[in-house]
Amino acid sequence: LLKNIKSRGLLAKTNGVTVKHSTFRDLTLQALVLGPEQEWSESTISRNVVVEHCIFDNCGATNEYTKKNHTGYDAQPNMTAIDIRGVGATEEKIISGVKPHSEMLAADFVIRHNKFLNTRNDHMISVTGARDVMITDNDFEERDGDGEIIYINGCYNVNVANNEYTDRMKAFFDEGNQEMIAEIYNCEKVKVENLNIPEKVTLKKKKKK
C-alpha cells in the first residue's frame, strides 16, 4: 500500500517491471510513471512492463493543481493514475509521425485486471510515445474529471479491450454526458473494442495534427 504521498507513487525507468496486487491511494500526482522524465534528463526507455490486479484510488493531479504548482506544465494530460511515456513524447512535444520500430518508443506494456476510482485528472491512463500496449479487463469507476478516460498520443499498436465501466460511471453517461472512451492523436493501429458501456457513449478518433 502506497498512501498519502505528495508526489508520484512509483517511477519505473527500466525494463522488465511487474507491478501487481498493490494499492495506490491518495497520491497528489501519478501513481505510476513508466518511462523517462525528459524534463529532468533522467533515465532511458521502459519496456516489458506488466501492471495487474492493482487498485488506483484518488491518484493524479487536477488541471487546477498543475496550473498553481507547476509553471510550464499547465493542464497536463499525463497527470493520471498511470503515465506511460517514450522519449520525445511530452504534452507539448509529441513525436512527429509514428515509426513502429523507433528506439524512442516505449514498448510492450500490459495493463490488465486493475481498478481505477476517484481519479482527479480528466484522464485515467495516459499513453504517449509507445508501441505494443494492451489495456484490457480493467474496471473504471467514478472520477472527478470529465474528459476521455484514456489519452493516447504518438503511439503504434495499442489495444483497449474488455474493460468494464461500473454502474456509477454508466450513470454519469446516462445523464447525457457524451464522454469519449479514448482521445487519440498521431497514432497507427489503435483498436478500441468491447467497451461494455451504454450504446450512446461513443469513441471519437481525432485527426492528426
Strand-helix topology:
Blueprint: E1 2-5, E2 10-12, E3 15-20, E4 23-27, E5 32-34, E6 47-52, E7 55-59, H1 63-69, E8 82-85, E9 106-112, E10 115-117, E11 125-128, E12 130-136, E13 139-140, E14 150-153, E15 156-161, E16 164-165, H2 167-174, E17 182-185, E18 188-193
Parallel strand pairs: 1-4, 2-5, 3-6, 4-7, 5-8, 6-9, 7-10, 8-11, 9-12, 10-13, 11-14, 12-15, 13-16, 14-17, 15-18
List keywords for this structure.
globular, disordered C terminus, single chain, 209 residues, 2 helices, mainly beta, 18 strands, 7% helix, 6-stranded parallel β-sheet
In N-to-C order, the SSE pattern is: EEEEEEEHEEEEEEEEEHEE
How many individual helices?
2
Structural class: mainly beta
> Biggest sheet, strands in spatial order?
1-4-7-10-13-16
The 3D shape can be described as: globular
List low-pLDDT spans: 70-75, 198-209
For the biggest sheet, the summary is: 6 strands, parallel
The helix content, as a percent range, equals under 10%
Query: What's the pLDDT, averaged over the residues?
Result: 76
Percent strand: 35-45%
The tally of strands reads 18
Termini separation: 40 Å
